[in-house]
Amino acid sequence: MQNRILIFDTTLRDGEQSPGASLNIHEKLEIARQLEKLRVDIIEAGFPVSSPTQFEAVKRIAGEVNLVIAALARAREIDIKTAFEAIRDASRKRIHTFASTSDYHILGKFSDTKYGRSLKEKRQTVVKMSREAVQYACSLCGDVEFSAEDAGRTPLDYLCEVIETAIEAGATTVNIPDTTGYTLPSEFAQKISHLKQQVKNIDRVTISVHCHNDLGLAVANSLAAIEAGARQVECTINGIGERAGNASLEEIVMVLQVRKDLMHFETGVDTREIYNTSKMVSGFTGIVVQPNKAIVGENAFAHESGIHQDGVLKKRETYEIMTPEAVGIPKTKIILGRHSGRHGLRARLSELGYRLNDDELNKIYSRFTELADKKKEVFDEDLRLLMGDEIYKQNTYYELKQLQVHSGTHTIPTATVEIGLKDQVIQESATGDGPVDAVFNAIDRVVKSDYSLEMYQVRSVTSGRQAMGEVVVKIRSSGHLYAGRGVSTDIIEASAKAYLQAINSGQMEKTAVSNPPEGERLSNIV
Amino acid sequence: MQNRILIFDTTLRDGEQSPGASLNIHEKLEIARQLEKLRVDIIEAGFPVSSPTQFEAVKRIAGEVNLVIAALARAREIDIKTAFEAIRDASRKRIHTFASTSDYHILGKFSDTKYGRSLKEKRQTVVKMSREAVQYACSLCGDVEFSAEDAGRTPLDYLCEVIETAIEAGATTVNIPDTTGYTLPSEFAQKISHLKQQVKNIDRVTISVHCHNDLGLAVANSLAAIEAGARQVECTINGIGERAGNASLEEIVMVLQVRKDLMHFETGVDTREIYNTSKMVSGFTGIVVQPNKAIVGENAFAHESGIHQDGVLKKRETYEIMTPEAVGIPKTKIILGRHSGRHGLRARLSELGYRLNDDELNKIYSRFTELADKKKEVFDEDLRLLMGDEIYKQNTYYELKQLQVHSGTHTIPTATVEIGLKDQVIQESATGDGPVDAVFNAIDRVVKSDYSLEMYQVRSVTSGRQAMGEVVVKIRSSGHLYAGRGVSTDIIEASAKAYLQAINSGQMEKTAVSNPPEGERLSNIV
Asked: A168 to chain B, minimum CA–CA distance in Å?
């Protein structure tokens, strides 16, 4: 195990904290199952105490996915207890608790004098909280990870003290997060080396790192830490996460694979599942992957200049240091058509990472045949879009019944909608600056909304002329963002569906009673 | 100058080689002017021998932009001569010539026996070509850079020999490209250290590096090279370029600024121009920046979790290691309205990096007032879209005169177009699977085209409900990609304009006679 690097995927926790990337339970479950196929070692499934939906999602994943399932908890009893409740059903479970250790964070978050009057006193409070948290977690669960938040900016001596305390208290993994993405690779490696030398019994636990990408160095920092002795890396698919995101799982894994001549480490990841996982995460979160993203960007294996193309044709390795097949980019496109049956559809969806029960299959099959009638060829991308659109959306407060649009250069764009709300059917029409604006205005008249439109995105239309468009809409109401997605070969219809779905999400949340833990507000996180 | 790092921007050369990122001369000139405001040290303006348009663009930039203007040339007389012709008018000019040095490249590109029968003989041919190329370049120009293509995979002894030869022959900068993005930071630093120790007179020249991002390590490799002695880095805005792109200028520059406590180097870059430059490059190339991109992604300075927001409110530096203002992200949005005059518009556009003559201003002003009538508030993003759409597009083969569209859930989407072609006006209508498809089908009937639709993207709609949509379309014909862009508050109209513009680009290129250099085909590039 000396050279085995554990991959701790936090797409569902830190990744989901990306602005606007809210995932519902079904989407989280699908991603978790795909991470199982990708063969990561640990999934951080969520932060159970933060909301009942988070709790429920972690619980479902713990019950269904056979990996180590971690749940996040601040260094507080209620958090740790709730985290454990959520992962109780997992065959392998981990409580991940944390406390803030940098001066910035301690002074920023523990300003109240009840935590101590001086920085020194506050620091000792953090040490005490950490010890008690780890001890309590260990009383529930044999696998406990402790993180020192903002370790990247924490003075080394104090960091050693906190980490030593956590190990004494029973932590089996100690995580050193560069929470603000501030460190340089050499500096971060020195931190890890220093800990390895100074902290008592650190050789009995796994050292983990969790790097953020604010300066573009998250992957390099993770690799430097591995060389210095870290044996777990926390990362996300496509590098999503707060701000500039986390270290990219796919980049770390492929560096270790492509350069195993120099870095003698291995992971358990099945790299051929990288592409499918990337597509699924980007589809569900609505966070696009830029074309020039390493490993999973659409241009990562494409060459433009005639010169380069010539080189590639002559000898592939002239410009390619790995093959597209190694990360699961299919060589040939598999195409379904109207004669593909339920069985063929299920098989293809399963290869793409989606597991369906019979009800779900029936729903998607009827959408599929409808599409296959319009398009002769149904591509993987089409199926991914249908999956993102259809199966996992169950918020149907308002339902689009009918839509009519007239627009053009010398016309006043006008839209008419018919929307179902329980037993009612409401018709409205409106004009706008374009057909989409007209549709949104008409919908506004039905729902009498106070939402502001924050984002409107039409994503990857699939291959072929009769391609489908996927519209992602984000709207804001009282400080909350709600996302909606719509898929159709008609971009206006897709827009209407996406807008209504976002409104439905807002409505559902307003009617659900949120149930935050008693006591203080959430005030810190890794 | 010991600690001054020269920033060599190759957005216009390597960046433009990104699949589908073709820039016209006006766009290149605008970007070059913006790079001047950003205060980079050297611009690589293009590869003049590769096409007459490349030649013309380099020539225009050389005549108008007051920076060191570099032009790329293979190690051949015709290339070097053409490069020099193109930059002759620049007050400071550089010829950048290169030869391939890795075994992969030598065997792949110089397979013909005329280059030698054994690898050893071929290698000596490359040394000879390099010497002659540098000597010839030096006879024309005092500032000559030599690159050893795929140096990242070139055996060190041979690399030393080639670099020493280039220095003997008169090169003033020697560039070590990691062409395939294969190296690790420590490995790359060792290469640079080795060269510094072994190559005669290397202390008399500037060592440069040029890193690609295939493994996500381009920025880390560039920084490691700086620590080992490199004093020039080649990079691009937003990290665009072949495949997974080049090292990101903004990341390298901000690491050096934010971490000057550890890395004692400086650049001449005015970091407050980073945001404008990033927006302009992404707008003109159509290459999106992912939200979680470091420094310039839309989420780079945004925080999601209630927890983090709380931290940020309490104390900004809890999660921010640099301010948005440091990279030029405006604190407050400056808004123009229908009462803003020509003067106000010109001033704002100039702050955004656009320099206009009176004719151009008049054109954009009429688009602006038209928009200000529809939207009450015109944002910077609106202006950027208008600029991308209107001023710099002069390919008007087909012109959209009128458009009418009917669509909806129970309607057969139908579009009617009226298109001008010289003195003719052609009307056509067609149905489709959605309104956009119907419009494209109607246009196809007019132009009788054989284009396949490769990409259809609706980009950042601007702030506010009556926002504008920007559609980017890429179509393919006989192996070539053509891009078109359309902007309107009506997404269908924007689509029609974008599609027609892409077709126009194709038509213009077909009628222009391309004039490749005599002799062999282009076969290598850095």
From this structure: 28
Q: What digits encode the pLDDT tens for the residues A140-162? A: 999 999 999 999 889 999 999 99
Which helix (DSSP H) or strand (DSSP E) does residue B15 occupy? none
> pTM for this structure?
0.83
Interface of A with B in 381-420 (CB under 8 A): 400, 402-411, 413, 416
Residues whose CB falls within 8 Å of the CB of residue A237, separated by 6 or more in sequence, listed in order:
A9, A11, A15, A31, A248, A249, A250, A277, A278, A281
> In B381-461, where do the E strands start and end?
398-408, 414-421, 424-431, 452-459
H-type alpha helices, A141-273: 156-169, 185-198, 218-228, 249-258
Contact status of A520 with chain B (Cβ, < 8 Å): no
Query: Testing the interface with A: which of B287, B292, B431 to mutate, by most A Cβ within 10 A?
Result: B292
Distance to chain B for A69, nearest Cα, Å:
21
CB pairs under 8 A between A and B: 377
Which structure tokens are listed for B75? 């190690």
At A381 the pLDDT is 75
Which residue does chain A place closest to B491, by CA atoms? A434
Residue A516 has pLDDT above 60, yes or no: no
Q: What is the DSSP letter of B397?
A: S
Asked if B204 reaches chain A (Cβ–Cβ under 8 Å), the answer is no
Q: CA B259 to CA B223: how far, in whole Å? A: 11
CA distance B230 to B125: 27
Concatenated DSSP letters of B26-57:
HHHHHHHHHHHHHT-SEEEEE-GGG-HHHHHH
Residue in chain B nearest A258 by alpha carbon: B182
Matching residue, tokens 């993005």: B181
Q: Across the interface, do A17 and B184 touch by the CB < 8 Å criterion? A: no
- How far, in Å, CA of B168 to CA of B154, rounded? 20
**CB spacing of A243 vs B305 below 8 angstroms:** no
What's the burial of A448, exposed, middle or buried (CB within 10 Å: 0-12/13-18/19+)? exposed
Mutate to test the interface with B, among A190, A252, A292 (most CBs of B within 10 A): A292
List the structure tokens of A15: 């990744």
B217 shares contact with chain A (CB less than 8 Å): yes
Assigned token pair, A443: 């919908």
A255 in B contact zone (CB under 8 Å):
yes
Q: Distance from first CA to last CA of chain A, Å, rounded?
A: 27
At position A490, the amino acid (one-letter code) is D
Residue B477 CA to residue A510 CA, distance in Å, equals 51
Q: What is the pLDDT of residues B161-181, one digit of tens each?
A: 999 999 999 999 999 999 999
B288 interfacial to chain A (CB closer than 8 Å): yes
Report the SS3 class of residue B102: coil
B216 touches chain A (CB under 8 A): yes
- Closest Cα in chain B, distance from residue A301 (Å): 6
Portion 16-45 of A in contact with B at CB < 8 A: 17-21
- Indicate yes or no: CB of A292 within 8 angstroms of CB of B217: no
Annotate A104-122 with three-state secondary structure: HHHHHHCCCHHHCCCHHHH
Q: Are strands B424-431 and B414-421 parallel, antiparallel or unpaired?
A: antiparallel
> What is the rounded distance in angstroms from the CA atom of residue B413 to the CA atom of residue B430?
9
Each residue's pLDDT tens digit, B314-337: 456 667 788 888 998 876 556 787
Whole-number Cα distances in Å, A42 to A229, A251, B133? 19, 17, 55
Among the ranges given (A324-333, A406-415, B382-391), the one the predictor scored with the smallest mean pLDDT: B382-391
**Can you give the three-state secondary structure of A157-190, one letter per residue?**
HHHHHHHHHHHHHCCCEEEEEECCCCCCHHHHHH
Report the DSSP pairing between strands B206-211 and B232-235.
parallel
ipTM value, please give it: 0.82
Residue A450 has pLDDT above 80, yes or no: no
